[in-house]
């Protein structure tokens, strides 16, 4: 297995309730499966995955990539497992001469709607960013909340709703910033705004709290960080979510993400696939995984624009709020663009 480290700055930091994300560092991998090369990427983000040091160490110990996926050695390092699992899946799809999405599902989407991601900012900046996103063709916005008091966040969202009108879908993501009472205040204040959902209002371990919010308010609830600290089965069984926000990087790879998504769907829980603001290889992986899932919701994959540079050219840029799934073999990116 070949490894190549990379480091990219964000063009503009993403402000969240848990601080700014301003750079992303990770490891690209290339594996050989039956003589065919596949590409993977580990871009760890503590809070969702292991540290970069733990990720690097786990990848350096892999001798047989296919066996490493099943022997438990990568179970505590989801970003490292993601890189290996994606690379093996990419190699297999390439040797079958199929796109990754079509190798993962008998029926897959050829294009997907995606949400614009709006960081924490004051009311005016948030409204301007929302208008810009809608002008660019997005009909779904995800706004970061939880860095301000809940009434101020409600004012931001209300101003966004007024600016974009009723036909644009609005999501909010608090990144676990609140306690039950603060989340109640926020949900009371936004009750008339018809939010698509509120993502991770409470800390990751508080499944019962999320279940209570779901019972007491009409705004649907989504879980994100919780999926990194409790088993997906528990998250699904606890009635704590209408939607699971699935980050392949945090769940340990495309295979694990598909299995979580299938279990969620059987329980009547929807799935939205997002990135941890990854480089092009992992973004494409998440796009193919999302394409392999049924459902019509917008995914959180429009994160390329946060990066100042990338490790290779992007074959799936966002146009009009939509991403087209590359139909060439595997991920749809040349191995030679990344490994010489
Ligand atoms: O879902 C999106 O719109 C983009 C991804 C995103 O918001 C995100 C990006 C990096 C780290 C955490 C998160 C998050 O969903 O909380
Ligand atoms: Mg989130």
Automatic annotation (TrEMBL):
Enzyme Commission code(s) on record: 4.2.1.113
Q: What reaction(s) does this enzyme catalyze? A: (1R,6R)-6-hydroxy-2-succinyl-cyclohexa-2,4-diene-1-carboxylate = 2-succinylbenzoate + H2O
Active site at which residues? Answer: 144, 247
What sort of enzyme, by top EC class, is this? lyase
> What stretch or stretches form a coiled coil here?
none
Kindly state which keywords UniProt assigns to this record, in alphabetical order: Lyase, Magnesium, Menaquinone biosynthesis, Metal-binding
For the keyword Isomerase, the answer is no
- HAMAP family, per database record: MenC_1
* InterPro entries the record matches: Enolase-like_C_sf (IPR036849), Enolase-like_N (IPR029017), Enolase_C-like (IPR029065), Mandel_Rmase/mucon_lact_enz_CS (IPR018110), Mandelate_racemase_C (IPR013342), OSB_synthase_MenC1 (IPR010196)
Pathway named in the protein's UniProt entry: Quinol/quinone metabolism; menaquinone biosynthesis; Quinol/quinone metabolism; 1,4-dihydroxy-2-naphthoate biosynthesis; 1,4-dihydroxy-2-naphthoate from chorismate: step 4/7
What positions does the domain Mandelate racemase/muconate lactonizing enzyme C-terminal occupy?
123-220
Instruction: Give GO MF terms, alphabetically.
Output: magnesium ion binding; O-succinylbenzoate synthase activity
The keyword Metal-binding belongs to this UniProt entry's keyword annotation: yes
Family to which this protein belongs: Belongs to the mandelate racemase/muconate lactonizing enzyme family. MenC type 1 subfamily.
What's the stated role of this polypeptide? Answer: Converts 2-succinyl-6-hydroxy-2,4-cyclohexadiene-1-carboxylate (SHCHC) to 2-succinylbenzoate (OSB).
Kindly provide the name given to this protein in its UniProt entry. o-succinylbenzoate synthase
One GO BP annotation of this record: menaquinone biosynthetic process
Q: What is its cofactor?
A: a divalent metal cation
Binding residue positions for Mg(2+)? 173, 199, 224
């Amino acid at each position: 297995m070949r490894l190549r480290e990379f480091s990219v700055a964000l063009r503009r930091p993403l402000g969240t309730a848990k601080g700014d994300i301003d750079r992303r560092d990770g490891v690209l991998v290339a594996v050989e499966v039956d003589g065919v090369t596949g590409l993977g990427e580990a871009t760890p983000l503590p809070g969702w995955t292991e540290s970069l040091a733990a990720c690097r160490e786990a990848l350096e110990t892999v001798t047989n990539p296919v066996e490493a996926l099943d022997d438990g050695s990568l179970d505590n390092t989801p970003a490292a497992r993601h890189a290996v699992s994606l690379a093996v899946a990419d190699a297999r799809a390439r040797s079958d001469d199929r796109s990754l999405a079509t190798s993962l599902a008998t029926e897959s989407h050829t294009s997907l709607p995606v949400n614009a991601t709006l960081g924490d900012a004051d009311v005016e900046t948030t409204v301007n960013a929302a208008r810009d996103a809608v002008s660019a063709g997005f009909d779904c916005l995800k706004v970061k909340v939880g860095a301000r008091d809940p009434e101020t966040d409600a004012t931001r969202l209300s101003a966004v709703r007024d600016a974009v009108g009723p036909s644009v879908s609005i999501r909010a993501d608090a990144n676990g910033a609140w306690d039950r009472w603060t989340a109640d205040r926020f949900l009371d204040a936004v009750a008339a705004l018809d939010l698509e959902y509120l993502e991770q209002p409470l800390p990751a371990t508080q499944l019962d709290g999320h279940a209570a919010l779901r019972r007491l308010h009409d705004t649907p609830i989504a879980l994100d960080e919780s999926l990194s600290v409790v088993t997906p089965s528990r998250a699904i069984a606890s009635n704590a979510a209408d939607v699971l926000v699935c980050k392949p990087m945090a769940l340990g790879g495309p295979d694990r993400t598909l299995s979580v998504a299938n279990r969620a769907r059987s329980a009547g829980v929807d799935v939205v696939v997002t990135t941890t603001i990854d480089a092009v290889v992992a973004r494409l992986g998440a796009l193919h995984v999302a394409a392999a899932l049924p459902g019509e919701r917008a995914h959180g994959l429009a994160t390329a624009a946060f990066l100042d540079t990338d490790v290779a050219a992007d074959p799936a840029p966002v146009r009009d709020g939509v991403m087209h799934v590359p139909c060439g073999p595997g991920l749809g990116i040349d191995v030679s663009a990344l490994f010489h």
